[in-house]
Amino acid sequence: MRTWAEFVLRHRRWVMIFWVVMMVAGGVTSGATSNRMTVDFSLPGQPGTEAAGKIIAAVHNGGNTTPMLVTVTVPAGQTVTGSEDAIAKTFDAVGAGVPNVRVIDEANTGDKAFRTDDDRTAYAMVFYPFPQSQTAKPPTEPIRKAADAVKPAGATIGVTGVDALALGDDATGPGVLAETLLGAGGALLVLLFVFASLLAFLPLVVAAVAILSTFLMLLPLTYLTDVSFIVQFLVALVGLGVAIDYSLLLVTRWREERDHGKDNHDAVVAAMETAGHAVLFSGLTVAIGLLALIVLPVPFMRSIGMGGALIPFASVLVTLSLTPAILGGIGPRVDWPKIRHEHVASRGWTSWARLVVRHRWVAAGAAFLLLGVLFAAFLGIKIGAPSSDSLAKSGPAVTALHTLEDGGISTGVLTPIEVIAQKDKAAAVADALGAVDGVDAALVSDAPSSSADGRTVIVLVPHEETVNSTSVEVVKRVKEVADRTPGVLGVAGLGTAQVDFLHAVYGNFPLMLSIIALLTFVLLVRAFRSLLLPFKAVILNLVSMTAVYGAMVLFWQKGHGSDALFGIQETGAVTFWIPLMVFAFLFGLSMDYEVFILARVREEYDEGRSTNDAVIEGIGRTGRLVTSAALILFLAFAALATGPGTDLKVMATALGFGILLDATVVRSLLVPSLVSLFGSWNWYLPDWVARLLRVEISHPHREEPEAERELVGAD
């Protein structure tokens, strides 16, 4: 780090020019990068994806989408009975007026399941192709206009469905740029408090360069493989928080070295040797968590792993080159007005650390008690998809759904099961699968749009929405019967996708977890020159992850707060891909604070302090930094939570809560108490391990028990 710092300082103008070029190029190409990102949640090789592919190949729609439901409600005093022909013409107009859709209704199936109990409303299922771009919208409005143009006199048209409900009352959120600016505004307020000088703007400059450079690095990746559109949100907002955090750490240490009397050049070098070293290891831990997604057999999650890993990569590069280049030039001039000084540790955090060390058993017990309560909530987690009640609270889609529900139609129609079968055996297949427990109806349409090349698509309506690990049991039963029924070529639908995802992804989760834990452990052994500290760090991270999942269960799945804060009722389940995404990002991000704190504690111990003194000084020096960094990341995730869609809100709030939990309960309470309890065991590293990892040998130095007791009992 010293050699690199000296190189940057010698060539700081060229370093700054390089990053200006990268930033401009990233800004110019960001639109092209975003446009090349894909919307694809398929699971290649899984039965549901294979069946969906057969359905799309045959009829060019459905398979991997849930249908829109278009309703026709006749005026008061009239009934569907007697209006069948007019209603059929309305649904036929949808099939003719909206490209590439497949309409299933009473007219082409002969099934009266398509009308409500009061005989006032008829509905049809409209299957449509999966959107091929992130800007494409479900065909809600085209369907509504086509039906409205040919509706019976006085009738009311409604359109609902999972995608229509997810859009709510057409709120689209503020967009990536607005969310980033919102997060940056909150971060600036925190930075102004931390620095109390113009230096507050430096981390924001570093973050802007890092974000745009990441978009530039993403562009060639989009030519090598499909990159999920989700990555752009993560680059903008996670990149904002990570880059600011890293720059904040380095700049704070530079100020400290300056306040200790070093000239500017030596202060930059010293900051790079200490804080820069911690930034490097922090970035590697974040990248490890994300790159582990590559082992999962899911293209969109692999792309998030690869694209997401560029976030810490770019943030570390910019922080360890542009930041020292700026500090080495105009750093002292922009540290104005000089209100806050860093020559002594924070009094408040020093007092807090001394209190925790003195009452370490109580502190550790209180932290484990809180984590235990959240772990108990985690045991009740249901993996699936949000229920219809949680997707939207108002709007025309909700009104249409309530019309169906009030008329005795089960919400299972929102998530039908599609079965592709040989056309000559469709009737027999429908009879066999319609008899499965939990299936309300088996629908075979005689419309040309439902059949092609000797194949036809049968639609099964489950009694309940297939949105969680309990309600998908009907899907499993259907698949079991389908496997032994002649003529069945595949089973698809939302429920099938969940079953496949749980099997493919969570079946590989132990491998992903093992890779992350092992690589992180080895990396931290090198960083801390200890066996116990890295082991504790990995275990505490896993414990805090279960606590975050428990908070997700309480807040979203059970609705204790989601309705009050977002106006969204309990989801009943956590969307199947979110826990893995939260784990991949949060494992590394929360480990950042572990590295920040323990790197300073290790430094103080190496200078001759006792374990307790090192903990107190380390927390005193890093406490404000860690909480400020956590608050900045939290504000970035809060900005992300303003985006559209329940899933995005669930992921953003989980990440935000996880960061705050980790920076407060885990890193400010549990870590110092446990390090104090472990004493000299923290610093032991076998000589052969040190030689293997090419690090300095570490043996505990002699600590005076009497001095330790005096410290713990001191005021």
TrEMBL record:
Cite the entry's keywords alphabetically.
Cell membrane, Membrane, Transmembrane, Transmembrane helix
Q: Name the Pfam families for this protein.
A: MMPL
Q: Can you tell which superkingdom this protein's organism belongs to?
A: Bacteria
Q: Where in the cell is it found?
A: Cell membrane
Q: Where is the SSD domain?
A: 195-329
Topology of this chain in the membrane = Multi-pass membrane protein
Membrane spanning stretches: 14-33, 188-217, 229-252, 278-298, 310-330, 361-381, 504-525, 537-556, 576-599, 625-645, 665-685
Note whether Zinc occurs among the keywords. Answer: no
UniProt-listed SUPFAM superfamilies: Multidrug efflux transporter AcrB transmembrane domain
Annotated Gene Ontology cellular components are: plasma membrane
Q: What is its main location?
A: membrane
- Is Transmembrane one of the keywords UniProt gives this record? yes
Q: What is this protein called?
A: MMPL family transporter
